[in-house]
Amino acid sequence: MSASILVVEDEDPLQILLTYNLQAEGYRVRVTGQGEEAMPMVTEERPDLILLDWMLPGISGIEVCRLLRARPETRDVPIIMLTARSEEAERVRGLSTGADDYIVKPFSVPELLARVRTILRRINPDAVADTLRAGDLTLDRRTRRVMRGPRDVALSPTEFKLLEHLMQNPGRVYSRAQLLDTVWGRDIYVDERTVDVHVGRLRKSLSRGRETDPIRTVRGIGYAFDERFGRPV
Ligand code: CA
Q1: Please, what CATH class does the domain formed by 4-127 belong to?
Q2: Taking the model in full, what pTM does it have?
Q3: Do 4-127 and 130-225 fold alike per CATH?
């Protein structure tokens, strides 16, 4: 079961950016722009992690954090505070209120995702595996190593990211635009054909001779990691 994340953030563009990227990582995401709504949402279904904006209309993020920490049933839910305040004093205040981590806006999405992963790994090692496996294919996130059976598969950093992204949600179809956003990042302008080129190279490195191709092309849409890869036919 994938980890669930509650996003408490009142800025629409950030809500969209966070939801999109967290879902792409395979998390289940709920969102609210109101501090008041956070408590009932947490009680209704306890999230594995909360991304909590400091500045919210009405009840502030710091207050929400305090409330969560004050109740035994929500005391242990990990919280990452999102804030525009970068001063050391504020940082200390945020952490002393009980937040587990603190990230200053504007933040980089990969950095935020890495922090999320670190915290989830700490509380539930299975929720964020270091190793992704399918059939005879193994991807190790810590050592950045990919193996097919006994053979080392040499991949460029981009190809590694591409494979990691596809592999963590087997069967899920990603459009070229989605892959560009998450693998290359939104700030870089690259043509959608770049995705095809890299998928082509990735395939070449992954499959030799008669080895089956783990990547499925979905005509007119994009690519998926074949969920039947490695399973007996
Ligand atoms: Ca805000």
Answers
A1: alpha beta
A2: 0.58
A3: no
